[in-house]
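Researcher: I'd like a structural prediction for the single chain below. Treat it as a standalone chain; there are no partners to consider.
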Amino acid sequence: MKTNKISINLFIIFFFLLYAIFISYPLINNLHSILLPNIYSSPFFSDIFDFINILKESEALLFKNKVIFHFPPYAFDSSITFNYFGILLGFFIKNKIAIVNLFFLLVIAFSGYGSFLLTNYFIRDKLISILAGVLYITSNNIFHHYYWGHLNLIQMQYIPIIILLFLKLSQESRLNLRLTAITGFFYSLQLFSSTQYAIYLTVILLFCFLPLILFKNFKNIKILCINFIFTSLTFLIISGYYIYKRLNYQETIVRSLEENLRPSFRLNSLLNLLDPNHKAFVGVITIFYFLISVIYLFFKIERNNKIWFWSLILMFIFSLLFMFGPITNLSPYYILYKYFPLINKFRVPLRFFPFLLLSIINICTLALSTLLKGQSAILKIIFILLLWLSLIMQYLSSSYFIGRYLYDGIF
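Model: Treating it as a single chain, here is the predicted structure.
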């Protein structure tokens, strides 16, 4: 039984890797090149070269036993997970661009797999959960960050996994040391990959999931607190030194409210979500399915899924409002910026987008699983394929996907 479960999960990961190759085509044709949309004539606007320089410096310092975590003064947000991936792969592959591209393909694949795991926890339906994973990685957002060389911000794979572990932990009726250790470990990986996503994820968990979890499990609040304390201890043991170094490095860094109000850093209108050439594109069809799903679930949601449905609704609302940035003194992002620790160290409120996307996907798939409950696998596959085609067609007019080319310049 356990062997069969491992085989199924390996097959699903392999599927997402193939899908990653498909949606990033023609990148697989030449991993030594950089994939670009035709709106850019070269990649030299990108931060990718900063990340490569950090990788080279990290290699040199690590091999001299001088440093574990490298924070050069010119890099605002490095990625330890990319650095160590690059160092390990560097024993076999010397071309740094190829290492970046392999990292990107694996990140896409495991982001899809992470979304699959979260959705499958909600609905217990692998076919529909695969659709959720596919939709999570088919977005302008992840390719925008690749084109701009944000190797920290392409790493969306840990977000759904940590939410899943948080939800599992909240259901425990006793101390679970194994689960607390795993959760603390993955939270550390999130911190090492993207500090900004780690902070934003904390906001989402505290505001969207924790209140309803406490309401549902009030009788087990003591066990809940103990599990979260042990998770926090594991997290601090793994990443405490990194946090200390990072806080010292970023002590003087404060991102102003004016900076966070830049039009390209925030959502300016709900119409941005409908613009196929915007990095926060969701799509008219997706929004339509989402609204229909919310109405349907409001009347048809099963009792055991109510808590998750309303948590996802809260995640959608908070993420959307945060993405507008500090537009007034009463706006949610302004309050967050003023009173939540470390938020003022970051910019670009649009980076709440992965949480918005996850909420939309999981509400749609929750409705779909309720609608197709008890139906045959063949009918589900046909329905899912038609749904996927209707959603993927939205990207045929997106400059993030159409008219891409490989930049073959010498690096």
